[in-house]
Amino acid sequence: LGVGSELVSDEESLAELLRLPLMQLTSDSWANRIQSAKTIVELAQMVERASRTTELGSQMSTKSARLLEALAQTTLPELIRASQGRLWPGKENTIGALVKVCGSCARIINKQTAWMEDDSQDSLQHFLKTVPQTVCTILLKEVTIGETSYRREVAARFISFVEAVPIDIYDKASSVLIDIARTGMAANEKSANAMDVDVDDDAERSMRRPQQLLLVAVVIKALQTVLPKDRLISIDEAAALSHVLCGVAETGVWNTRVASLACIAALYKNCSAAVSSNSLAGIAAIQDLLDGMNTGAALGAIRTCATEGKYVTVRTAALDAAEAILGCIKAVYSSDAEESSHVKAWQRDACTIVETLAEDSVPSISDRARDVVREWTRV
Question: Using CA atoms in the order 366, 371, 377, 379, what is the torsion angle rounded to 10 degrees?
C-alpha cells in the first residue's frame, strides 16, 4: 500500500481502505484474489500497530478496541466465506489473511470484547466467540486437500492461529494431524522403496519426498501446539500420539526427528506440570497415562536419535526429550516408596542416554548432559 498506520487510525478510514480488497476476495481473477488477500494482511498489520500506539500501559484503550473491532467485523466474515470455497491456485494467501486478521485481533477475540454495550456490539461479541472453532474447522479441512506444498502452508498457518488464539481443540485436531503424519511417512517410505527399483521416476519422486517430510514435520509441530495446557489428554490419545512420534523419530530425517522429539518432550512436561494440581488419585491417573504412552518405546526412539552422529539439532532435541522424561519420573513418582520395576528401567534407560550425550563432541550438548547426570547422581 505504501501508506502509514496513521491512515487507519479510525474506523471510517479503515472501512474505506478495505472496501475494494474485500470486493475482490471472490473475484473471477485469481491474481485479484491474491492481491486482495495480501492487501488485507498489510492493513491488518497497520491496524495492529496503530492500536498499540493508543494503549495505556498494559491496558487496551477504548480506541484500540474499537479499531480492532472494526477490523474483525469488516473482514472476518468475508475471509471466512472466501476460505471455505473450492481450492484454487493461490488460495493459501486467503487462508493466510484469515489467520493474520485473527492474530491482529487476538486480544479482543481472547477477551471476548469487554467493551461492547449496544445491540450491534453484542452481535459482534457472539460472532467473535464462534471465530476460533470456525477457523480451526476450516484449517483442519484445508490441511487434508490439495498439493503437499499447500497443505504444509495451511498447517503452518494453523500453528500460527493456535499460538495467537489459544483454543482447546486437541480432541478434534489430533486425529486429523496424526493421520496426515502417518500417511506422509508411509508415502515417503513407499517413494524411497520405489526409487530403488524404478529409475525413470527417480527425479519426480526425489522432488516429492522432501515436501512430504516437510509436511510431516510441520504437522507434528502442530500436534505439539494443540496439546492442552490445563488438562491431560486421555490414555488412548496419548498412546496414539506416542506411537506416531516414536515411529517418526526412529525412521524420519533430521527435521521430522527434531519435531517428534520436541513433541515427546512437551508431552512429558505437561504430565510433570499436572502433578502439582492433582490429588493422589490424580497422580495415579498420570502414572497410568505414562504407561499408556509406552515410555519404553519413546526412550528407544530417543536413544536412536542420541547416537545420530550428523545433526547437532537432533542430538540436542534427544537430550531435551530424555531430560523431560527424567523430570516427569521425578515429579510423578517422587512420593512413591514402592516404585515399580518398569519405572526404574525407564530411569536407567534415560540416564544411559544422557550419559551417552555427556560424551558428545559438541560442548553445548555435553556440558548440559553432564549437569543432568550430576543432578541425578544426587537423587
Answer: -140
